[in-house]
Amino acid sequence: MVAPVAAGCVIGVDVGGTKILAGLVDPGLGVLHRTQRPSHGLTRDELLARLAELVAEAAAAAPGPVLGVGFGVPGMIDRRRGVVAAAPHLPLDGVRFEALMAERTGLPVAVDNDGNCTMLAEWRHGAARGCRDAVTLTVGTGVGGGIVANGGLLRGSSGGGAEIGHMVIAFDGPPCQGECPGRGHFEWYASGNAIGRAGLELARDMPGSVLGRELAAGREITGALVTELAHDGDEHARAAIRLVGGRLGAGMVSLVNVFNPERIVVGGGAIAAGELLLGPAREEVARHAMPSLADGLEIVPAHFGAEAGMLGAATLAFEELAG
Ligand SMILES: [Zn+2]
């Protein structure tokens, strides 16, 4: 059998703070080739060179024309100018990203915030498909956000909108992560890192617990470890996740009251906790959101896992560059 000739592919690139994932993606969102490299510790020039290398590698695997490249970047993107206004975890602040990458790859380039890319993938092809109003929360190191309102992606006046992780929860709370100048932000309380912090606190309070013994043995108490122990049935690890799930739900209450979504999609590394995280979030929403606004609301896990950002960047490229 002869393989069908691709109608034209795009390349989606998820530029994470620790790794870069690039994929050659066909119009049916099939991934024909994927490649991954670390991004941590690189200078600006090294990072831009690595991105160009990954794009070239993916393009070389294409059976037909490559229509463009979409990039999802964790930071504030000024989409009017194609500039990364601020990227707390990468050396890209102020970089004319779109123009530079177009020059280095020789391909048309589109760039958006990674949270918006994830929303786009889930909205067009995943768990928020068919919704006119939906919210995506990517719960990992921080909390990424994406909002579809009134049938369109909400990007705000400069294109950097939907930074849900940086909603203020406590005006005098702890300083935010990375370079964010704010205090008491949502992601401090409700991220995967927050699960790790809650676990660490329990480990210190209860040296005889499983978490306490892990800490004494020199293991780092991370969100992933707490989740693993919770799945094994450890009650303290479960309590840490329940706490963060409830806080996640409290943030959802605000989102429900403001945006009245049909669906809230939860992805990111922390969704490995599954119902242990989502159950308490749903309870919190049921108790505290305005009933008329939460009526019919579904809180569901993301359809796309670790590739959501890359597939969303590819979707962005199809929509903005292949038309
Ligand atoms: Zn913040």
Secondary structure layout plus pairing:
Layout: E1 9-15, E2 19-25, E3 31-38, H1 44-60, E4 66-73, E5 76-78, E6 83-86, H2 97-105, E7 109-113, H3 114-125, E8 134-139, E9 143-149, E10 152-153, H4 186-190, H5 192-205, H6 210-216, H7 223-231, H8 235-259, E11 263-267, H9 275-288, H10 291-294, E12 298-301, H11 308-321
Parallel strand pairs: 1-4, 4-7, 8-11, 11-12
Antiparallel strand pairs: 1-2, 2-3, 5-6, 8-9, 9-10
Helix pairs in contact: 1-2, 3-11, 5-6, 5-7, 5-8, 7-8, 8-9
Residues 166, 176, 180, 182, 185 line the site of zinc ion.
Write a concise synopsis of the structure shown.
With 323 residues, this protein is an alpha/beta fold. The chain has 11 helices and 12 strands. The model is unreliable at 1-6 (pLDDT under 50).
Q: How would you name the CATH homologous superfamily of the largest domain?
A: ATPase, nucleotide binding domain
Which architecture of the largest domain does the CATH hierarchy give at level 2? Answer: 2-Layer Sandwich
Largest sheet: 5 strands, mixed
Spatial strand order of the main sheet? 3-2-1-4-7
Large-scale geometry: globular
Separation of the first and last Cα atoms:
30 Å
Provide the CATH topology of the largest domain.
Nucleotidyltransferase, domain 5
Helix/strand-derived category reads alpha/beta
Look at the structure and give the mean pLDDT. Answer: 93
Count up the domains: 2
Q: Which cofactor or ligand species appear?
A: zinc ion
Question: Please, how many helices?
Answer: 11
Catalogue the unreliable spans: 1-6
Q: Give me the count of strands.
A: 12
Radius of gyration: 20 Å
- What is the H-and-E element order? EEEHEEEHEHEEEHHHHHEHHEH
Q: Give the CATH level 1 class of the largest domain.
A: Alpha Beta
Helix content: 40-55%
Roughly what fraction of the amino acids lie in strands?
A: 15-25%
